[in-house]
Amino acid sequence: MSVRSEKVAEEIKHQISPVLTKDLSGLNMGLVTVTRVWMSVDLKTAKIYLSFLGNKEAVDVCLDKINFRKKQIRMHLSSKIYLKSVPELFFYYDDRMQYADRIDELIKQIHKDEK
C-alpha cells in the first residue's frame, strides 16, 4: 500500500467508526469496531474489517444490516472526507481475535499437558 492510500485508509477508519457506533446504534448489533481498513492503490475501493462485541445475532446478519445501509455510510463519509471520489465500501468480519484466542488456548493445553 502506498503512503497516500495508508493515510486515506486511516482517515476512513477514523470517520466511519462514529457512524457505526452512534448513527447505526438502533440496529442492536452491540459494539461495532473498525479493526482495519485496506484501500486500493487507486483509492476507488475500501475493504473495511469489523469486529462485533455483545451482539445477539449472527455475524452474517450484522454484516447484512451494515451492507444494507452502505449508501448512508458512504454519504456520511463524503461529507467528512474530501476526495475526488468516495471509495466503494466493502465490509468484512475480522476474525483475527478469535483466531488468536484459539491459538492461545492450544498453547495453554500444550503447556498443561507437559506438566
3D structure, described in words:
This protein has a single domain, classed as GMP Synthetase, Chain A, domain 3. The chain has 115 residues and is of the alpha+beta class. The chain has a three-stranded mixed beta sheet, covered by helices on one side. Helix content is 53%, strand content 21%. A hairpin with a 5-residue loop joins strand 1 (31-39) and strand 2.
Major beta-sheet overview: 3 strands, mixed
Tell me the structural class.
Answer: alpha+beta
> Which word captures the global form?
globular
Q: How many strand units?
A: 3
Strand content: 15-25%
Helix content: 40-55%
CATH topology: GMP Synthetase, Chain A, domain 3
Give the CATH level 1 class.
Answer: Alpha Beta
Rounded mean pLDDT is 84
CATH architecture: 2-Layer Sandwich
List the helices and strands and how they pair.
Elements: H1 3-23, E1 31-39, E2 45-53, H2 59-68, H3 70-80, E3 88-93, H4 96-114
Helix pairs in contact: 1-3
